[in-house]
Amino acid sequence: MHEHTVAAFDNDLQNLAKRLVEMGGLAEAAVADSVAALVRRDAAQAQAVIAGDKRIDALQRAVEESTILIIARRQPLANDLRAVVGAIRIASDLERIGDLAKNIAKRVVAMNGVAVPPKFVSGVDHLSRLSLEALKDVLDAYARNDAAKALGVWKRDGAIDAMHTSIFRELLTYMLEDPRNITACIHLLFSAKNMERVGDHATNIAETIYYVATGEVLADDRPKSDEVLEPTPSAAGGA
Prior knowledge:
about 240 residues; mainly alpha; about 80% helix
């Protein structure tokens, strides 16, 4: 960002960016920890993710309050206005990512006492690596105001969808093979859907970063490879 005549304006924008970076770090850690808890069946770690979501929510409120004050006091234009409006949108996506991590953690707690063969979880673990990589890269793109890197994340959304479709089919097969697998597989299906949604929100953030950096909206439809009828996002576990 360029320097402004009023130094306090620069401070406002820098503090806003710092809050978003902190929020992004917490959201990324929450997703990683929720998946680790799922793989290890660690209810204590899952409970920590659930409790930590309050901090992400508080940061979102702080970002919203900061943006309102900046608009009221500084009346930003052009690049600055895009940065402020973009911050609101990115904070909303990060808050939803935190909720999705919390949903996975809740599934871990609910799965207590349910037999889950390791091979059932491997696909969800792989999907989480793709979504986490996208999230990490898009947060780095935000920190660097890197439109090209954001565009790269945007283009990878189809790969995440394709992996989710593959997991859906695999878990459905396990349920058809043995009805005793149904409970575990349903929990894992919802967890996989939550991870796919993390990828969607990372893609949303990439679109916002691209707009803030260039002033242009990505006009093309984002790449999609999801061919399976699935539960709606709201059915994948409430916040």
